[in-house]
Specification:
Layout lengths: L6 E2 L1 H7 L5 E3 L3 H6 L6 E2 L5 H14 L1 H12 L3 H11 L4 E5 L5 H12 L3 E5 L2 H13 L5 E6 L5 H10 L3 E3 L1 H5 L17 H12 L8 E4 L4 E2 L2 E2 L2 H9 L2 E5 L2 H12 L4 H10 L1 H4 L1 H12 L3 H21 L6 E5 L5 H13 L1
Parallel strand pairs: 1-5, 2-3, 2-4, 4-5, 6-8, 6-11, 7-8, 11-12
Antiparallel strand pairs: 9-10
Length: 343
């Protein structure tokens, strides 16, 4: 009996994934490096097994590699089916590997013969990665929210979203606040590839014709990099620059960062010593040791304000609007900014 398992293109696959679960049959290492958000890893081969089969393929050829693969997979087949039945919704499942080849085909055949209805992603995860790059290239109506370090841009952005506007929180997706101290209090960062995948999940949910608020960022956010396709649009987008007093910014940064261990703060101060200056770094470290966090933050801001102003001057966009904000009140400030854009 001939078995015809449906193979569907990426657009249909993503639409189906809104309802049906995705099984990624690649190795755990491949999955960890980058995967479709919400996909479940059910690897045909673990990392060591994949390495063994790859070596056999290179040295002894495809036939020997296939036979070794069958030997490895055989004892696992029952567990694969049991797990897949638990994962499936309405007895249906989506499945992919790297290129949509033997691994996903083999697993789909197993599921089909066990009574599950699988659909395979044409071109596999590689097709997904190519697709998201294309989607990132689509023109979007981006509006940049800019302001010196400590202005509360991220909190304002969240309040803008609470008021019904579209936003992309790049720092939230990256698990990093975007400065030398930005990893403090955050989860471990994913690979840049996974950062892009998680970013696409947001990008794909937005109406690109309507305003999308994005915080001003450099290309790198910690160890993650904004996709070139989006970053180039950000650099050309109109900018709203908020101005909040240094006193209020110092107060915010003291609250945000100084819960951290003093040794950790000193470690990061030493990392920016070359740009902060040896004397300023020494004074900032002494301030931390004496628990004078306001003084330490004040000294650090001398560096960050210079870096911010330099970055703003390098923009090619001519549309930079400055708005003075008298309080560090994200809800009020979000309302002020939204009202400004509506007039």
């Amino acid at each position: 009996m001939q078995i015809n398992i449906p193979s569907i293109e990426i657009t249909e696959f993503l639409k189906e994934s809104e309802v049906l679960p995705i099984i990624d049959v690649r190795s755990p290492a491949e999955f960890e490096h980058g995967h479709i958000p919400n996909a479940i890893n059910l690897p045909l081969f673990n990392n060591e097994e994949r390495a063994i089969i790859g070596t056999i393929y290179k040295k002894q050829g495809q036939e020997k590699a296939i036979l070794m693969g069958l030997e490895i997979v055989g004892p696992k087949m029952k567990d694969f089916v049991i797990k897949a039945k638990k994962i499936a919704k309405n007895n249906q499942i989506l499945i992919h590997c790297w290129r949509g080849g033997m691994r996903s085909g083999s697993m789909a055949w197993l599921f089909y013969t066990s009574g599950i209805k699988p659909q395979i992603l044409t071109g596999g995860y590689k097709a997904y990665r190519k697709y998201i790059k294309t989607e990132f290239s689509k023109p979007a109506n981006i509006l940049i929210l800019s302001g010196s370090t400590g202005s509360g841009k991220t909190d304002i952005l969240k309040e803008i979203q609470n008021k019904g506007e579209q936003i992309i929180d790049l720092e939230g997706i990256a698990h990093h606040k975007g400065s030398a101290f930005g990893s403090i209090g955050e989860k471990k960062q994913n690979s840049t590839e996974q950062f892009e995948n998680n970013l696409f999940a947001i990008w794909n949910s937005l109406n690109l014709e309507k305003t999308i608020w994005i915080e001003d960022e450099s290309k790198a956010i910690g160890h993650n990099f904004i996709p070139t396709e989006i970053f180039e649009q950000m650099r050309l987008a109109p900018v709203i620059k908020i101005n909040i007093s240094k006193e209020l910014r110092i107060k915010r940064l003291v609250n945000e960062y100084t819960f951290a261990d003093k040794d950790l703060l000193i470690f990061y101060l030493n990392k920016i010593q070359k740009r902060l200056g040896p004397n300023e770094t020494k004074l900032a470290i002494e301030a931390v040791q004496k628990n004078n966090m306001e003084a330490a933050v004040n000294l650090s801001l001398n560096f960050y304000d210079k870096a911010y102003n330099y970055g703003l001057q390098k923009r090619t966009v001519t549309s930079i609007t400055e708005i003075e904000l008298l309080e560090d009140e994200p809800k009020k400030n979000a309302k002020i900014l939204i009202n400004f854009t509506k007039h």
